[in-house]
Design a protein that fits this description.
Pfam families (chains A, B): tRNA-synt_His (PF13393)
CATH superfamily of the largest domain in chain A: Bira Bifunctional Protein, Domain 2
Order of helices and strands of chain A: HHEEHEEHEEHEHHHHEHHEEEEHEHEEE
Binding site for L-histidine (chains A, B): 83-85, 127, 131
Shape of chain A: elongated
InterPro entries (chains A, B): aa-tRNA-synth_II (IPR006195), aa-tRNA-synth_II/BPL/LPL (IPR045864), HisRS-like_core (IPR041715), HisRS/HisZ (IPR004516)
Structural class of chain A: alpha+beta
Organism (chains A, B): Novosphingobium lindaniclasticum LE124
Oligomer: homodimer
CATH class of the largest domain in chain A: Alpha Beta
Number of helices of chain A: 13
Domain Aminoacyl-transfer RNA synthetases class-II family profile (chains A, B): 25-329
Number of domains of chain A: 3
Strand order of the largest sheet of chain A: 1-5-6-12-11-10-7-9-8
Helix content of chain A: 25-40%
């Protein structure tokens, strides 16, 4: 039918009805309250920008995954944001270039891509994150990992686990400790990414084999990588990982997968992925990275995380919720109704004789100035 | 410079830095808390939809003002939302078609247009609103006007005034009370819109002249329009306006401009515009209207309002804000820090010896387990 067809939403785009929207708002509010309490100040970014500005700051943003269109005012290409991290990096390098460092910023909002991601058909997602700009130290990384865990816990996630990785591991080792001919670096990376031990040997990367086995629960995996140590090349990284793990091991299960690079293409020494019980796939990731400065300025170190909480929202929205709503009959005293709202009631005022408190989802009714259960 | 150029934002699009973003979040949170306490359930809508779906529900949405682009998945035209009201109307007619009426929904989010509006260059605005679906009665209109006022007051607006109008006045009167030849209706409307008394007489609308003078403070203007009465054609509307005004006259200054139609093209019997002290232009408008149902279903009555609070956000962000932030020195006890956050402190943890509490905007420092003023 022509007319019904108009009501369909495009593939991968959807509404949130009240129960889902309430869960989504609760997730955002609770997570942002945690970030704010740790001194992370909120910024808001536009839905659209010049395509080049969005693409320019970080290698992780793929222009061809963005909705793009010509601006009738500037006649330049605009893009719908697909990642707010690049926008926050822009703010740090421009509007807040003079703000003291470390600069703590937080953000959240909807981001869009022209196609879904692998098995997930969603083309619009909620992104929520925090950026600590001006430092990529171990202390910064520990704060960011702890904050990501606390924000997700406050938002309602349980059974959180965090997988640590060392994104620039091959770059670090191939310089001296485990030298590789330039031409083979890419092949070794590829075999490590594929966790292909045979392939790794075939391309001459047998020296890197221990990395494939230093995987699993943090306490044991870190010992395996420490044994593999390579003349001190990894000493500071190993010490850093231990410090971060010590800070959060009472809040989440920590695992290590030192050669995992998928999704960490623009991260520097440290990266992490965060998971929660009952949710397939990750809820987000973070790590240390570098922000391109203005022309003539040096790049700046930064540490941050981005969460994509939609699966958590879906999980929370599916939990049955007790409705506590107070029906206000026709002719009720508006002052009494206001007092009931002030002590936390949600009120639903009758507008006509036919308004039915039960049909409208009310659990109570205002009677003689008091809330009486229906 | 090429590189700096990339950092510029397109005309009419901007970031909100921390002070502005904080004001924006506060406005949204406070307003939504009021809406929620009155039983308005939040819905969330996608940033993009099929162009036709956005344009179809209400005459007020202008397709040519939307950013439009081809969807590579469906090969159909998509548009970036320019008005969330049309989306909420879609939800009411589809996903919530079976929900009991009256249905109370609220929403907020960013909306975009390809060009600014008159003197305002903004191409992206915050829209926040409530819709009461299934009724356009006087009781519904009174609830919606009161709610708009309460939401704005909670958000920080002061000196609120509300201007009432009767959008379908000429349609109502021209049928019988003040008959007009079909061909002249448009001209009479135009002269009333232009507040052009001479022109009104010229086009044969002298009978409508009293409408031009029934303007101003509600108490006196309603008496002028009541005197003009026209054999009862306006009796129910006048009684309705009096009832709505009585409900809110202690909360806002009420004025009447019965022939004002600008911005009310898709409203039915009642419309209002809302203003606040210190803000030029209106903060939003609302009224009664009709939603197109699914094919084969009747249109549905509805009442609602949309606020565009950006000017209020700017006003609130300009007010000086006391910073109360607690600096946590290196080696602080994380449990004590957590306790301080639990009682309301915003904390800023030192990450290195060089972190300076004053430069980081802190007012206090954790010392011996207590917050000490700096």
């Amino acid at each position: 039918m022509q007319d019904n067809d108009r009501d369909l939403l495009p593939e991968g785009l959807g509404d949130r009805l009240p129960q889902q929207a309430s869960a989504s708002q609760q997730v955002r509010r609770m997570a942002h309250d945690v970030l704010a309490s740790h001194g992370y100040e909120r910024v808001e970014t536009p839905l659209i920008e010049f395509e080049k500005a969005l693409a320019h700051r970080m290698a992780g943003v793929q222009v061809r995954r963005m909705f793009r269109f010509v601006d009738s005012v500037s006649l330049r290409m605009l893009a719908l944001r697909s990642d707010m991290t690049a926008q926050v990096a822009r703010i740090a390098a421009t509007g807040l270039a003079e703000a003291p460092r470390p600069l703590r910023l937080s953000y959240s909002g909807q981001v869009c891509t022209i196609k879904g991601d692998g098995l997930d058909p969603r083309r619009e997602r909620l992104q929520l994150g925090a950026e600590l700009i001006g430092t990529d130290s171990v202390a910064a990384a520990a704060e960011i990992v702890e904050l990501a865990i606390e924000a997700l816990r406050a938002a309602g996630a349980t059974g959180i686990s965090v997988d640590f990785t060392l994104p620039d591991l091959v770059d670090t080792l191939s310089v001296e400790a485990l030298p590789l001919p330039e031409a083979r670096i890419a092949a070794v990376r590829q075999m490590l990414d594929a966790k292909d031990a045979g392939g790794l040997v075939d391309v001459g990367g047998e020296g890197y084999l221990p990395l494939l086995y230093a995987v699993g629960p943090f306490a044991s995996a870190i010992e395996r990588i420490a044994a593999f140590e390579c003349g001190g090349a990894l000493a500071s990284r190993i010490a850093g990982l231990r410090e971060i793990a010590a800070r959060v091991s009472d809040k989440a299960r920590i695992t290590l997968d030192p050669s995992e690079r998928h999704g960490f293409e623009y991260q520097s020494w440290f990266g992490f992925t965060i998971y929660a019980e009952g949710i397939s796939g990750s809820l987000g990731r973070g790590g240390t990275y570098r922000i391109l400065g203005q022309t003539g300025h040096h790049p700046e170190s930064a540490t941050g995380f981005s969460l994509y909480p939609d699966p958590l929202v879906d999980l929370l929205a599916a939990e049955p919720q007790a409705q506590r709503k107070l029906f206000l009959p026709l002719g009720h005293d508006p002052r009494v109704a206001g007092q009931q709202r002030a002590i936390g009631w949600t009120t639903v005022a009758a507008l006509s004789e036919s308004d039915d408190p039960l049909a409208l989802g009310c659990s109570h009714k205002l009677e003689g100035g008091e809330a009486v259960a229906l």
